[in-house]
Write a structure and sequence with these properties.
3-stranded antiparallel sheet, 376 residues, alpha+beta, 7-stranded antiparallel sheet
């Protein structure tokens, strides 16, 4: 029997059943789910194992990499500096980051960076994992990259560069690294979220169970052409940019790679999203509306399908639904982790796991989300 613990209001018993079903029927190894409705925690469950050998039980404070769910987290930090008037959505990145203004990127704006239209979905200079652990080295390489397309003319998912792009914007304006800024926001909320897990906290980290189908050693950049080069570099330059080969190391957990290596709990994500839809608490109402409406729609060569982007947040769509209500927004992460909010239902939701299965949406997170709405 898989160990499951935590609280679940009787009205949300279907969520617990769906959570248990993910272990029994869908290959879940370790996971957590949290649901907050109108500020009240109604589901807060953890289950399974924090390691593949099943020697460590998943605890309430177990941290795990939630991959691209962290894009919305670092975007929130940028939106807050917009909200405070320190920079505008349509100001150029080069206005606070002059080095970024070369290579055809001088017109790229904050808005374009937040909706994947800034022109730098990959770094052109070949880098190493030693570079990955060095924030200044990575952001300098992003700034030095010649634009892959004219900013604002299309969107291409900035798989990994999004975090360094938006995170450096935050640092240039505030003087703080994104991980430090995140702790200032998350701490008062009781949200256990990190970008750069301190060594003393890494004992709480679950091992990610994931064997990537492609590694840097199998990517022959010289024999790729056109957008295939851009896509491959976006995923695998540096080699560990998407976590391949480094995911469970102290270096990866301790580094700041905001697009990809945010760590936290499901409760932390749910608390953050619940606070976002609390009027004026983390964002002003007008900016929240702007950030969560579609800003860019159409085909993305990286994701291989039509997608919709807001400003860091992803609005709910038929392809990737976040419940039935049209104003829901959030972000999925590789393997199925997800945080989202539904302002109409007053829901803040978080789900994290360590057994990574392909793509963002999965039968596991969909089963949990559908069970939440049947229970409301």
């Amino acid at each position: 029997m898989v160990p499951i613990s935590g609280q679940c209001d009787a009205a949300f018993a279907e969520v617990r059943e769906a959570f248990a079903g993910n272990f029994a029927e869908c290959g879940e190894v370790g996971a957590a789910v949290c649901v907050i409705v109108d500020g009240n925690v109604v589901v807060d469950l953890v289950g399974g194992w924090a390691d593949e050998a099943q020697t460590r039980r998943w605890q309430a404070d177990t941290l795990v990499d939630y991959y691209s769910a962290g894009k919305a987290v670092v975007a929130l930090l940028a939106l807050q500096i917009v909200d405070s008037g320190l920079i505008g959505l349509d100001d150029t990145l080069a206005s606070v980051w002059p080095e970024f203004g070369g290579g055809g990127k001088e017109t790229a704006t904050v808005r374009q960076a937040l909706c994947h239209r800034a022109g730098v979905p990959a770094i052109r200079e070949l880098l190493t994992n030693d570079d990955l652990w060095n924030w200044d080295r990575m952001t300098a390489a992003v700034a030095a990259t010649e634009a892959w397309f004219e900013p604002g003319t299309r969107h291409v998912y900035h798989t990994n560069t999004f975090g360094h792009l938006v995170g450096e914007l935050v640092r240039r304006v505030t003087g703080q690294m994104p991980g430090d800024r995140l702790r200032q926001v998350a701490g008062p909320l009781g949200a256990d979220l990190w970008c750069g897990v301190p060594l003393a906290e890494q004992r709480r980290c679950a091992d990610v169970i994931w064997a990537p189908s492609t590694t840097i050693g199998e990517v022959d950049f010289a024999n790729l052409s056109g957008e295939a080069v851009m896509i491959a570099l976006g995923y695998f330059n540096p080699a560990g940019y998407s976590s391949a080969g480094v995911v469970n190391t102290a270096e990866w957990r301790g580094a700041q790679v905001p697009s990809t290596n945010g760590h936290g709990t499901a409760t932390g994500l749910a608390r953050l999203y619940s606070a976002i839809i609390e009027p004026g608490r983390l964002l002003s109402g007008d900016l929240l509306i702007e950030a969560t409406r579609p800003q860019s729609e159409g085909y993305c060569p990286v994701l291989g399908e039509d997608v919709t982007f807001g400003l860091g947040f992803v609005p709910t769509t038929a392809r990737r639904p976040l419940g039935p209500n049209p104003r829901s927004f959030g972000h999925f992460g590789t393997g199925g982790a997800v945080g989202f909010a539904d302002p109409d239902a007053g829901v803040g939701f978080g789900y994290v796991m360590n057994h990574v299965i392909p793509r963002w949406q999965s039968t596991r997170n969909r089963a949990l989300i559908e069970a939440v709405y049947r229970s409301l």
